[in-house]
């Protein structure tokens, strides 16, 4: 019996020592940098098991010992924590760092930037050609795309009041689905590689409506708008008229004053939008006399839709315009704007800043 116990103890001790040596070897290996000449892009497929992940890493060019990677993950209890996605691994990453990154899901982040003042057509072109997006909407018309986006909105949301959700006021109060100009917020959007482009549209759409909702609820009293969609039209015009944030509230006041007096807006930016591909790069007298729904020299009131994607400053200006008596403005040519209360002063400003250049 005594001999048996000694043999058993020796066997257990040897096994424990062997496990200690094995764990020490794995730990030493786990902390040693993996030398790669360039950062590697690696895609881990969904529903991949631990051995499959090790195989995918190796096939992607990461020089790891697959069996040691599997053993390390099991020793650390992380074999079921590894997440799929698109990763970028630096040239000096260790196997342990690599495992931690896979467990945390620190996937590669891509971005797409939508610029303030772009048209919806320009936004679609940018998204359609972005190499990191999955292009699920390329073959959709604008109206089909809008239906895809609206299908993601729950019936409960669609019955909220205007003060609760200006998003659905815009969607349900006469907004032409086939002409979704202005309904998307220009911003930089982060996403994982191979994300559907529909996700970017939904996020941009939702963000615009959160912004317009916030500004609409706190708007200045007495504005000549029938609803938030009119405010969005105004913001889109302001966006095209000036890029200078401090001038936007005064530009807004000019257009608001004109609406109150039933004066035509007479803004070149709407005329250019209405001309579309007929615009040659310089407005002439014939262009100003061409009747389109967007010619605010000929037609009164606001245009039928927004003409651009307005940013935050333009939204604020449209709903919190400066208090002024100005009815005219002209660019000084240096990025700033000169404002006039009457036509005589405006003509003098035009002579100085336009004809005098």
From TrEMBL:
Its main location: membrane. The keyword Transmembrane helix applies. Keywords: Cell inner membrane, Cell membrane, Cell wall biogenesis/degradation, Lyase, Membrane, Transmembrane, Transmembrane helix. It is an enzyme of class 4 (lyase). It catalyses: a peptidoglycan chain = a peptidoglycan chain with N-acetyl-1,6-anhydromuramyl-[peptide] at the reducing end + a peptidoglycan chain with N-acetylglucosamine at the non-reducing end. One of its GO terms (cellular component) is plasma membrane. The chain crosses the membrane at residues 7-30. Functions as a peptidoglycan terminase that cleaves nascent peptidoglycan strands endolytically to terminate their elongation. This is Endolytic murein transglycosylase. It comes from Candidatus Vallotiella hemipterorum.
């Amino acid at each position: 019996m005594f001999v048996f116990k000694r043999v058993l103890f020796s066997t257990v001790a040897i096994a424990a020592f062997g496990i200690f040596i094995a764990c020490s070897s794995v730990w030493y290996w786990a902390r040693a940098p993996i030398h790669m000449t360039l950062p590697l892009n690696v895609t881990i497929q969904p529903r991949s098991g631990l051995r499959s992940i090790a195989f995918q890493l190796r096939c992607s060019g990461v020089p790891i010992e697959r069996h040691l990677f599997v053993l390390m993950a099991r020793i650390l209890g992380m074999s079921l924590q590894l997440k799929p996605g698109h990763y970028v691994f630096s040239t000096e990453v260790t196997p342990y760092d690599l495992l931690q990154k896979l467990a945390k899901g620190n996937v590669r982040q891509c971005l797409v930037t939508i610029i303030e003042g772009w048209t919806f057509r320009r936004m679609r072109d940018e998204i359609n050609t972005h190499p990191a997006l999955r292009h699920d909407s390329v073959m959709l018309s604008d109206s089909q795309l809008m239906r895809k986006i609206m299908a993601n909105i729950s019936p409960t949301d669609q019955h909220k009041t205007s003060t609760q959700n200006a998003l659905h006021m815009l969607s349900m109060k006469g907004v032409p689905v086939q002409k979704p100009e202005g309904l998307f917020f220009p911003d930089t959007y982060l996403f994982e590689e191979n994300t559907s482009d529909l996700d970017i549209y939904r996020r941009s759409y939702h963000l615009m409506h959160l912004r317009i909702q916030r500004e609409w609820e706190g708007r200045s009293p007495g504005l000549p708008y029938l609803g938030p969609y009119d405010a969005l039209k105004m913001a889109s015009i302001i966006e095209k008229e000036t890029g200078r944030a401090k001038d936007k509230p005064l530009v807004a006041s000019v257009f608001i004053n004109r609406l109150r007096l039933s004066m035509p807006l007479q803004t070149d930016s709407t005329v250019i939008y209405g001309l579309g591909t007929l615009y040659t790069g310089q407005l002439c007298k014939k262009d100003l006399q061409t009747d389109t729904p967007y010619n605010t020299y000929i037609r009164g009131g606001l245009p039928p839709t927004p003409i651009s994607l307005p940013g935050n400053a333009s939204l604020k200006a449209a709903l919190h315009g400066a208090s002024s008596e100005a009815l005219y403005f002209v660019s000084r040519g240096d990025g700033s704007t000169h404002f006039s209360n009457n036509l005589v002063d405006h003509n003098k400003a035009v002579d100085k800043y336009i004809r005098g250049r």
